[in-house]
Each structure stands twice: as structure tokens, then as C-alpha cells.
Amino acid sequence: MKIGIVKEDNDRRVALVPDTVQKLTGDGHSVLFEGGAGASAYIDDAAYTEAGATAQGRAEVLAQAELVVTLQPLAEADLDAAGEGTAFISMLAPYQDAAVLEPIAARKQTALSMDMIPRSTRAQSMDVLSSMANIAGYKAVLAAAHAMPRYFPMLTTAAGSIPPAKVLVLGAGVAGLQAIATARRLGGVVEAFDTRSAVKEEVMSLGAKFVEVEGAKDDAAAGGYAVEQTEEYRQRQAELIQEKAAKSDVIITTAQLRGRPAPTLITEETVKGMKAGSVIVDLAASTGGNCALTENDKTVEKYEVIIIGDSELHVKMPQHASQLYSKNIHNLHKLLVGEEGALVFNLEDDIVASATVVHNGEVRFGK
To answer: CB 215: neighbour CB atoms within 10 A?
Structure first.
């Protein structure tokens, strides 16, 4: 099988790293890469060549590869260069905008979207959302520490004692749990809130206090995502969050609803009640934000509170983000290899079926 890697537009990551390329070539596959594909992730062309890949121009990679792996959806000109029958693995996010699938279907191509892989035990090694969320949670705390005009840890000095930062994490999924762990390593005192009662033990195991609101709607069938709650529950939730926010130096928000706007957890009134110099890092900024005053891809100051709206913090750690994404791709690829190394799409397999959003020109997403 010929596998192609191209340089990403507006993304510092690369879809495959040399370690993965070496495994693929060792299994008898051919890997073609566009020169400079890994440069923004500090991976040079020589590392790919040493791993067994062949450097080509972008058009040549797209024209020759049977499978093209990327992070971002390709432009229509690139789809034309690839031609009919080519398969792509990417992060298409069709639940945000299904129109991204139409150009692929029109060219009778096939596409798998990494963000459509089910969040099941069997699929953990392919779960790119978790891989990137882990990085985002880590970077969110570092961003808060950088912006905050105060120390994170408790310090005892000749000039007096400094109390530790109080950190509130809203949403204890993968990003939230990593944020808790990182804030604790920096010496913060951490509290965490989540509507999912199942995460309580994980939160406490990391040394944080779990903030619980009684009466949450059951989330057992939500596949690891948050579910919408009743109005009565949201009111109690808002009151408790406002109370906790007023005492916090840092708030990290991570709550997302798949395919819908992020829930507003921090109102303008809550921001008004926070201490001057406090920091909010909103990881749900791209879908509306968990804070009512968040501006996507911007850092703003409102009521003397610094609000960082950034859903792409993982992109700012491109080397390890690329490494994790590459491993996710490799694990999915193993399910797509049939006899003699050919591509096979077994749509009876729940992982392949969920990820395959377009198959030979037919849009499968939503069916």
C-alpha cells in the first residue's frame, strides 16, 4: 500500500512521524512524503528518509498514494490531484459541518474521520480526541500560570508566606483530569466539577476535591460526553460555580456537547465577582465557550479577569501532538489492512464503520 503524508496548511503538526513510518515500511508499505512536511514539528526530511519514506512534491504524493493521512481536511485542488478512489484519514469533524464531506463524495473518494472513532475500550489506542485533550489540559494550566500575576505554589520566604493558587476545573474528562494533575504538580489547590458522577473517584485520586451538584441526569449512554441537564439542575449548578469561582485564582473550562454549542458555565455576573487578576482558560472557545465573555482565539481582559479562549492549545505542542496522532493513525491503519497489504473497509467492524464517513463516494455520516 502506498501511504502519503503532506505538509499541513495552518497547522504545525504532521500526520505521521518517522517512528511510525519505520513500522509501516517494515510491514511492506511504501510511504511518500512532501518535502518539509514535518518541519513545523521540528522533524526534518532526513529523519523520514532514514525511516524508509520517499520525498516527493505535493502533487506527486497525492497522485500516487492510495491512502493519504492528514490532520486538517484537504482543499478541493488537493482532492482533484488525488483523484477517484483515493482514501483519506483526517480530522473532518462532520458533526460541526457535514458539508466538508461533499467534495470528497463528489470525487468518488473515501474518507475516515479520526474524531468519529467511538470512545470505547477497544478503540482507546486510536482515540485522537483523548490524545489531543491530554495535551490541551496540560497546556491550559501552563497558559494560566504564565498569565496569572500570582504564584501557583505556596511559598514561605523571609518576606512572608504566599498562599497556593486556588484552581477550579470545570469538566473532568481527559483534558480536565490532565489539568488537575498539572495544577497539582505546580502546587495549586484544586477543585473540580463535572455532571458525570463516574469521574468522582478519578478526580479525588489526583488529589483534587470533587464539587458535586445533586440531581444530575444519567450519562451512562453518552459515550463519555456530557449530556444536557434540566433547568433546575443548571440553576443549582450555576449558583455553586459562582460561589467557587469567586474564590478561585484560575478556572479551566473543558465542557463540550458534541455537535452542539458548549454550555455556558461562567456568566458575566460570575466574572464580575472574581478576584482581580484571576485567569480563565476556556478550552471550549471554538464552540461558543463555557464563559459568556470568551472570544475564540483571543486573550481578553474583562472586569480585571484575564480570559484565554483557545481550543487549539494542543497544536502549540506540535512534536508530541504529532507523535500521539501518528500512533492513533497507525493503530487504525491496522484495521484497514487486508490480505497482501491492500486497503479493506470492513464496515461490520464498529470502529471502521463509525470512522468511515464517506465510502466510494457515498456519504455515510448521519445514516
So the answer is: 11
Residue type, 290: N
The residues that bridge with 52 in the sheet, in sequence order, are: none
Given the DSSP bridges, would you call strands 54-56 and 356-359 parallel, antiparallel or unpaired?
A: unpaired
Answer CATH for 130-316 from 3.40.50.150, 3.40.50.700, 3.90.1150.10, 3.40.50.720: 3.40.50.720
**Active site residue ranges:** 119, 124, 127, 130, 225
Provide the strand spans (E) within 97-230. Answer: 110-113, 155-157, 160-162, 166-170, 189-193, 209-211
The torsion angles phi and psi of 120, rounded to 5 degrees, stand at -115, 170
- Residues, the chain: 367
pLDDT digits (tens, 9 = 90+) for 209-232: 999 887 666 555 555 455 666 788
User: Rounded mean pLDDT of the chain?
Assistant: 94
Compute the chain's Rg from CA coordinates.
Answer: 22
Over the stretch 94-113, which tens digit does the pLDDT of each residue have? 999 999 999 999 999 999 99
Note whether 137 and 176 are within 8 A (CB). Answer: yes
Sole residue written with cell 505521521: 16
pLDDT number for residue 112 = 98
CA 326 to chain centre: 14
